[in-house]
Amino acid sequence: MTRMLSLLRQVFVVLALPVVLLAVWWVTSAGSENFYLPPLSEILTTFGEVWFSGRIVSDVLPSLLRLAAGYTLAALVGVGLGIAVGSSKALRETVEPVLEFGRAIPPPVLVPVLMLIAGHGNSMKILVILSGCIWPILLNTVEGVRAVDEVLVDTGRTFRMRARSRLHHLVLPAASPQIFAGLRQALSLGIILMVISEMFAASSGLGFTIVQFQRGFAIPEMWSGIILLGIIGFGLSLLFRLVESRALRWYEGIRLAERGGSPSKT
Amino acid sequence: MLDVRGLRKVYGGEGGRSVEALRDLTFTLQEGELACLVGPSGCGKTTLLKCVSGLLAPTAGEVRLAGEPVHEPPEGMAMVFQEYGRSLFPWMTNAQNVELPLKERNVPKEERRLLVAETLASVGLEDVSSAYPWQLSGGMQQRVAIARAVAYQPKVLLMDEPFAAVDAQTRADLEDLLRGLWQRLGVTILFVTHDIDEAVYLGGRVIVLTNAPTVVQDDVAVDLPDERDQVSTRALPLFTELRSRIYEEIQRAKSGDGRVYSP
Ligand SMILES: Nc1ncnc2c1ncn2[C@@H]1O[C@H](COP(=O)(O)OP(=O)(O)OP(=O)(O)O)[C@@H](O)[C@H]1O
Ligand SMILES: [Mg+2]
Asked: Which residue segments constitute the domains of chain A, with CATH numbers given?
């Protein structure tokens, strides 16, 4: 029962501010004569018409699939490379300057370049997402692997842990808080790049549709797209937190214990 | 069984400040011997254990185990680290921590389960086997680390101040547990401690180290009866005599004018 109540409380805390902001938007925009800032009520009426009449499948889904592909690839390559670089001092010293350089390039400027190389199709967009998302994942993984406690490493060595189980039971879990930090940064970056890659050259997708609306002066429709993007970003980050808090339960436990909380003994 | 010959370890070097932790150490442990290692803080006891375990390459000299030179952690050796808390895997439960090295050695599942339960019970921690290390007190964590080393059934056991964080009563219990294990399993033990009483009570022999740069100051045979008891053994005149002798040795080791023991 108390669990239920605390859950309700949490939901309330999370939703309170957005609801207030929406209300303010609703009230101040009601009866707005400004062509570019239509009343929220009008935007919300268009929302259903615009998105639930096939565009979910024809535009939203392709966008999300490209995001999933680019993000997953970035995670695999970033974590894989990060482990290799983080484990070897020599390799780290060689590639670190290159990594810093790569991270410093704003990913959107790669869009024109990648368009030349990979054309206008899905692969270009996936590459754009990949090339932006990989840096935070890679650099955080390198840091995480490098910072594995040396006593733990020595423990693994004295018990002669094999390479495979050292990776699974020692290096990956030890670096996982950092890896997740990188994955979280990459997720918000990925959503931005998903939209941007569709603004240049595309025939489907959320970014493409929003730009189309804007060019056709379909302003309420354009706003409804922006709201949908917000909802998608929010949903994905919620999903991410869920996965993260499951995977890092031990880590949260330690932090709680260090702050003098009383973790349950189960 | 375990030969340490002319061991020297200098940290750093390469132009920067270098620390000579060990100057020249030579001693031998027979198979099944329980030797305690005492010395002033910072004299290089941990460094010595790391060299013996093959975790750290010595600057000069060598370590041999059963005739074989040690370059990396050899099979059948377990170590209880001074930083016991950091040596436990925080993402595993206490039982999983004890079980992990057994998995690496391909011990069958049923046997693993038994060993884990048995050793955790022997250090009085059967109730917290499914808890995580960070949910335990320092002393309990230390006992998990000890249980892990014991369950591994090593031939050589290196222990770096393993009883430092436990209360006096638990400490006495663990001392008796360790002697019991040692007598039953015939394992060779090198035991580092700050506590002179503990060294005399546990050991068949006490090796005293000098201040850094470190050499062996003295090597004292402890001729107490094999069956030891916390009350009566500690009351023996020989116990008191050994204790005073080692105490004086350490005082001299600290002041640095100790005679140097040569075997
Ligand atoms: N990784 C290292 N790099 C440089 N110097 C080190 C390193 N580890 C230890 N030392 C130095 O070597 C000397 C011996 O250290 P060590 O930890 O072996 O001592 P100890 O006898 O175990 O001390 P304690 O009784 O406090 O545990 C110290 O002067 C220490 O500062
Ligand atoms: Mg030490």
From this structure: 60-202 (1.10.3720.10)
